[in-house]
Amino acid sequence: MPLTKRAAPFVAFAIFAFQPVAQAAEELVVYSARIEKLVKPLVNAYEKETGTHIKLLTGKEGPLLERLKAEGAKTPADLLITVDAGNLWQAEQSGLLAKVDSKVLNDNIPAHLRDPDGQWYGLSVRARTIIYNTRKVKPGDLSTYEALGDAKWKGRLCLRSSKKVYNQSLVAMMIAELGEAKSEEIVKSWVKNLATPPFSDDENLLDAMAAGQCDVGIVNSYYYGRLIRKNPKAPMGIFWPNQNDRGVHVNVSGAGVTKHAKHPEAAVKFLEWLSSTKAQNLFADANLEFPVNPKVKPDPLVAAWGSFKQDSISVAEAGKLQAKAVMLMDRAGYK
Ligand code: FE
Predict the structure, then answer these.
(1) Three-class SS state of 158
(2) CATH code that applies to domain 9-124+251-299
(3) 250 C-alpha to center of ligand 1: Å?
(4) What predicted TM-score, i.e. pTM, was given to this entire model?
(5) With contact defined as beta carbons under 8 Å apart, do 61 and 249 qualify?
(6) How far apart are CA 80 and CA 145, in angstroms?
(7) Digit-coded pLDDT (tens) for 309-328
(8) Ligand 1 centre from 202 Cα, in Å?
């Protein structure tokens, strides 16, 4: 008798432990505009932890959205992962995403870094901030994004192309907070200060700055991180502007459950897991970004840049005002 008594709990445990295997494995299809290298470790960890089988398809953000649109109700995609609130907003506007109501997501992700309507959620944070050449500029010379239009920066400023969604979002947020007229004035003053025509990407811009072609510029924080990781002695510094007013412009990479998901519950579970303390470092550190979940600390290299006040306006504004931002930059002669 004593044996049976002792065996009973073991049997119960064994059934519980084998249940996920006994059930048909849960399936999930993820479309990701984030490159495979950044997403695959999360997919692997989640598959291992839950037994869910995830099919991952990666591609450039534009073609991936077009594919989702073309597939319509027949799409196999359950979850879309992409970068920039401007792109997530576009996906929402195109009717590609579904509203999700989750206490876990709402608790893990600050309100300004997710869609107010629950159709997409930020999962990592990038600051679009000021980088400077430490041989030519002291932090005390810097203050705000606006001040990069001051006459003292004539011929010293580097910017990336206005065609990139990152800059469209930056200007859209300025419109939201400063109004269109003031924002146009600022963008015009930047254009006047350009050292060279705008760059095709943030990396080229930083290389040009390291080579002394310009002294200040605006880039996403993780590009600076990559440069410093590769070359810790590079004469480059990171500066947090607008600390006495609206704060640093931040954006997200994030995800939304698709409108025609075949496994919507599994997609929500995966999304919730991505926002958890368990997954957040894996998601953010791979690209030297900030975790979106405030309970999670960034990678030490990123943490070394110090804490800063971030702009707390909803990143959804970046999408809403994107078209206005594009027209404004065109009027201002920002190529
Ligand atoms: Fe990027």
Answers:
(1) strand
(2) 3.40.190.10
(3) 13
(4) 0.90
(5) no
(6) 32
(7) 999 999 999 999 999 999 99
(8) 8
Q: Is the pLDDT of residue 140 over 60?
A: yes
CA distance 122 to 119: 11
Is residue 279 within 8 A of residue 110, CB to CB? The reply is no
- Ranges of each domain in the chain: 9-124+251-299, 126-249+320-331
- Ligand 1 center to 244 CA (angstroms): 27
Which is it for strands 53-58 and 27-32: parallel, antiparallel or unpaired?
Answer: parallel
Instruction: Find the 103 Cα to ligand 1 centroid distance in Å.
Output: 30
What is the rounded distance in angstroms from the CA atom of residue 277 to the CA atom of residue 240? 26
- State the distance from the centre of ligand 1 to the C-alpha of 220, rounded, in angstroms: 7
Residue type, 313: I
Distance 1 CA to ligand 1 centre (A): 66
**SS3 at position 18:** helix
Residue 24 Cα, ligand 1 centroid: separation in angstroms?
A: 38
Tell how far the Cα of 225 is from the centroid of ligand 1, in angstroms.
Answer: 12
φ/ψ of residue 29, rounded to 5: -115, 125
Residue 110: alpha-carbon gap to chain centroid: 14
pLDDT in tens, 226-247: 999 999 999 999 999 999 999 9
CATH annotation of 126-249+320-331 = 3.40.190.10
CA distance 47 to 62: 28
**Angle between helix 165-178 and helix 322-331 axes, rounded to 10 deg:** 90
Cα–ligand 1 centroid distance for 17 (angstroms): 41
Nearest to 261 by CA among 32, 7, 68, 43: 68
